[in-house]
Amino acid sequence: MEPYEIIACSLTSKKVLSIVQSLGLSLRSAKIKMKELPEIYLSFGSIILQFKRRMGKNGKRMTRIDDIPIGVDVSIRKRCARLNRITGRFRENVDFKVATWSNPGKSIGEWIKHIYSIFRCKCYEAEFHVGKIRVDIQSLRNAFPKLRETVIHGSLEEEPNDQEIQNTQIILRAFLPYVKNVELHDVHLQENLCLQHIGMANLRSLLIDSPNSPKFDDILTLNVERCAIRGNHFSFRNLNRFFKLWTKGSFPKLKYLTVEVENIVDWTVLMKGLKAEEAEVDEVDEKQYTIHNCYGNRAEIEECYNKADIFGMPDYVSIEFYVFN
């Protein structure tokens, strides 16, 4: 049976659900997208299922996780290799099917729990679009499985409304203590829950993609293994201060850091006082330096040019920092 057929079969009775659960079926990844209507994405490798809840009766908007939708739209995408008889080569095709299931009286939260009770999965993710969510955020925590990653998309508006700010804070307070990976896109943080608080969490990775540049002090509390900061431009002087703090034993957990800077790297300012050793590289325009901290750990600092603009100049340059124990 295909995965969507197994899920459909599990809805027929409690006994069948128990049998399906006992199989211990594996799932590569699962993601919940919280938009105006919640969506669930299940990846089985070559097969991807999407479950999208329909509105309530008479087009009634669902506002709580225990509201009951009138039905579920199921999309099935299946990748398969097919032989081209002319060229004799295999090429990848995608079969796409759409079906609508009637709802057996389950609320949105019950749908989430039901689907996740069937499969074994190590990668549960949730993606929140705080400007589009219409479901009460407070009712989400108990319905979700243990998440590994949380992605939050804010508004592109320069001044987000109070509801978006409140939604962001509720999501972070509810899930930050449990997740390992966090991504923040166009998220406006406030003083009572700022980047410093997020940086202190015991995270594996943190990605910040925001037009509002964080302060240098915000990254001094980093307690993450991998950190990427996009859409911001730190000064070379501040990055030099950061690397000096690392050489003195700060940020012991950090394994990788990348930040965006100006198009032309001022290596004199960036390497000042670090006792860095310049490494040989293949490209003439590239530079790479090696530094050590007080514990004898080695780190490499290098520049990475990103996509060029219409004049052939890079839009921005990233400074990448790798730590080797």
From TrEMBL:
Residues 195-259 form the Sdz-33 F-box domain. It holds the Pfam family FBA_2. InterPro entries: F-box_Sdz-33, Zygotic_Embryogenesis-Asso. PANTHER family: CYCLIN-RELATED F-BOX FAMILY (PTHR22899), F-BOX ASSOCIATED DOMAIN-CONTAINING PROTEIN-RELATED (PTHR22899:SF0). This is Sdz-33 F-box domain-containing protein. It comes from Caenorhabditis nigoni.
